[in-house]
Here is the input.
Amino acid sequence: MAEHATHFKDHLRVCKTYIQRTITKVVQARNSFNVSSPAIANQSTINFPRLSKNQKTELDIQAAMWCFMSNHSFRMFENSFGKRFLQALNPAYTPPSRKAVSGALLDSAYIMTKTRVDELIAALSNINVVTDESSNISDARICNISVHSPSGVIHYVFEDIDVKQMNAITAAQ
Here is the structure.
């Protein structure tokens, strides 16, 4: 058959192996995703921004601290301008919702801050305690206790003193 062209062509029309190999070659040659293609070789790789779970957690805590330490509303990250700003900084970052800021992130930030303050106070060789009395929003008497340190004044705690008579011994207790 190889010497007779007509018989050879007839054979190739029905030969499954030849048909599969030919189709595969044609498809691969036209495949736009073929890496060996010169057009694809000149293209650059697109890096999609990604955040690991730890990076997202750290950014959420930093965002929450920004909200808390600046006395912003828990909804500050729901503002469209803020969202666009954060998207421009890192497209992979989605800011926390107000529920996350007022819930788990507030608890985490409190624990972190309390731990840092306690460590700072424990490291002081001398403690200068400052107290004063004020009233809260309900006009209840409260005693504010602050600690003066080289880093500045730290508001440590406030306590409802109700109708107690405040003198030096009561304040110390």
